[in-house]
């Protein structure tokens, strides 16, 4: 039996090579962000608040999401932006929307501040939004690259510009919602039998798996953002997955209620397709988790699952007795538009744990830098803070728990110009068409934002409102103004007027909607 003698010189060379390459790389954790589109806080099978039945989505089967919750930490109070593009910019830059100026995905019509052209007869002159990520903003891959990371962004970008300019080495370009809608809108109200890549879930995942495999085999730490087109409308799923849900008794009961069958129901009104889309998405999440395990990097990889904005899934009401937990929906800074599901698994995170403090999407950049071994406090002009220590079990400070989170939507679309600040359990909303109505809510007892308590606590309202407007001024946020040329008759004829009236400012208590009772 022969033996090979390792001399001290050879050993020194080996150690030097390891320290310069794979050994250091292996110590750096990988980071995978699974970014899901239009997924409500209660859109997963995981109860976002234990014991609260309508904080989850019954019927929907997502065993891999359930696995992540068992193996990681669930965030019961996670926040995002009210629309997908601003949310994506917040994630990339660590900045709030009022600071980065990207508050909506809309044409600025060549204007710099106010949108004087889009809504000339409406009560408020809204603002335009930045059109791209600011050139001087430090994004996730730019922050991680000096720490030895290579980054990829697969799927929906929707921020304009070239991802390569932000130091992504692999990406799909300047993608919007369009690529993910693989079926022509209105051209076919039925789900085709030959659909094999709904919402590009399978091809997006395969590209992501290839990137992970290549980096892991090279011993290269990586950041991978998989920005799925699901669960955005234009609902799609595999035909076989839809068939599985059409047979569910509650789905069958829904078909009967609307006078349709599984064969005659239209795609947009078919709950089986939405449920199937979630089921297929879960399978792709499972494929990522499986590849991480196969590559032997499970103990050194963080997996973050989160939605880009809130939503209002009608599929909740398939289960009798369940009502919507939140007010409003996407496009609004009510809880229904900004509260999202979030789960994180990774090194040092206790399995099956919960975190109840408020967190927000612009916390990701400093958290990722912290995980990568950098100094998140060295990041300039950001609003987020690192969550890394809290994920490892450090109790949050009172300062953290009561920090102000800012949400700003100075636009019309289906909604209207309004803003909000959340501090602990308190939330102030401000509608620019009704500046005379102060609005304050205690989210600990009023998750649905039914009762405006500003009149009872004027000092609390005034403090948070002043904090918000002072911050907006400090970061240069665009602020709407009342329109002296408003024509209320024209405004009231707009197709979204009723929604704006019902979901606008109010004194006292608001009436519950049909799906909230």
How does this model look, in words?
The chain has a single domain (30-400), classed as Alkaline Phosphatase, subunit A (3-Layer(aba) Sandwich). 30% of the residues lie in helices and 14% in strands. The chain has helices at 8-20, 22-27, 63-71, 84-93, 97-100, 140-144, 201-217, 239-246, 249-257, 271-294, 335-338, 364-371, 388-391, 398-401, 458-475, 488-492, 497-502; strands at residues 30-36, 73-75, 78-79, 124-125, 150-155, 170-171, 222-227, 301-307, 339-340, 342-345, 353-355, 359-360, 404-409, 418-423, 426-431, 439-442, 481-482. Strand 14 and strand 15 (426-431) form a beta hairpin. It starts with 7 loop residues before the first helix and ends in a 15-residue tail after the last helix. Belongs to the sulfatase family.
Tell me the number of structural domains: 1
Strand order of the largest sheet: 6-5-7-1-8-10-2-11
Number of helices: 17
Question: Which range best describes the helical content: under 10%, 10-25%, 25-40%, 40-55%, 55-70% or over 70%?
Answer: 25-40%
CATH architecture: 3-Layer(aba) Sandwich
Query: Which structural category do the helix and sheet elements fall into?
Result: alpha/beta
**Any idea what the radius of gyration is?**
24 Å
| Unreliable parts | 1-25
The portion of residues forming beta strands comes to: 5-15%
Q: Class, according to the CATH hierarchy?
A: Alpha Beta
From the 3D structure, determine the CATH topology. Answer: Alkaline Phosphatase, subunit A
Task: Indicate the mean pLDDT.
Answer: 94
State the CATH superfamily name: Alkaline Phosphatase, subunit A
């Amino acid at each position: 039996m022969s033996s090979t003698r390792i001399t001290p010189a050879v050993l020194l060379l080996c150690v030097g090579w390891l320290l310069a390459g794979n050994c250091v790389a292996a110590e750096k954790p990988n980071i995978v962000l699974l970014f899901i589109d239009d997924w409500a806080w209660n859109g997963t099978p995981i109860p976002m608040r234990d014991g609260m039945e309508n904080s989850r989505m019954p019927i929907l089967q997502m065993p891999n999401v359930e696995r992540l919750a068992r193996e990681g930490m669930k965030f019961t109070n996670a926040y995002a932006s009210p629309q997908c593009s601003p949310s994506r910019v917040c994630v990339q830059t660590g900045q709030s929307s009022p600071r980065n100026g990207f508050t909506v995905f809309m044409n600025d019509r060549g204007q710099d501040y106010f949108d004087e052209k889009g809504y000339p007869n409406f009560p408020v002159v809204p603002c335009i939004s930045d059109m791209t990520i600011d050139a001087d903003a430090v994004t996730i891959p730019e922050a991680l690259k000096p720490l030895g990371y290579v980054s990829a962004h697969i799927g929906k970008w929707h921020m304009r510009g070239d991802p390569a300019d932000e130091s992504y080495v692999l990406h799909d370009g300047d993608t919007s919602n369009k690529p993910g809608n693989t079926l022509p809108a209105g051209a076919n109200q039925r789900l085709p039998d030959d659909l094999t890549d709904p919402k590009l879930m399978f091809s997006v995942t395969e590209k992501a798996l290839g990137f992970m495999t290549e980096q892991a085999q090279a011993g290269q730490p990586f950041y991978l953002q998989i920005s799925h087109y699901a669960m955005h409308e234009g609902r799609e799923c595999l035909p076989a997955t839809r068939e599985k849900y059409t047979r569910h008794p509650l789905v069958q009961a829904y078909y009967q209620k609307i006078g349709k069958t599984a064969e005659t129901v239209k795609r947009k009104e078919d709950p089986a397709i939405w449920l199937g889309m979630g089921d297929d998405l879960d399978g792709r999440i499972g494929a990522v988790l499986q590849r991480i395990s196969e590559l032997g990097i499970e103990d050194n990889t963080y997996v973050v699952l989160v939605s880009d904005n809130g939503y209002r899934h009608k599929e909740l009401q398939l289960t009798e007795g369940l009502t919507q937990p939140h007010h409003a929906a996407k496009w609004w800074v009510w809880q229904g538009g900004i509260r999202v599901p979030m789960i994180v698994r990774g090194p040092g995170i206790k399995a099956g744990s919960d975190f109840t403090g408020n967190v927000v999407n612009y916390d990701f950049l400093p958290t990722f830098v912290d995980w990568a071994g950098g100094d998140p406090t060295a990041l300039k002009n950001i609003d987020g803070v690192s969550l890394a220590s809290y994920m490892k079990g450090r109790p949050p400070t009172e300062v953290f728990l009561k920090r102000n989170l800012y949400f700003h939507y100075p636009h019309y679309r289906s909604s209207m110009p309004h803003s909000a600040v959340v501090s602990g359990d308190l939330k102030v909303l401000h509608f620019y068409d009704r500046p005379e109505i102060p609005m304050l809510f205690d989210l600990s007892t009023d998750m649905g934002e039914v009762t405006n308590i500003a009149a009872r606590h004027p000092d609390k309202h005034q403090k948070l409102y002043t904090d918000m407007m002072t911050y907006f001024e400090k970061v240069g946020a665009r602020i709407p103004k009342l329109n002296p040329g408003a024509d209320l008759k024209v405004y009231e004829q707009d197709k979204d007027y009723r929604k704006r009236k019902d979901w606008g400012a109010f004194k006292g208590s608001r009436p519950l909607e049909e799906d909230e009772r």
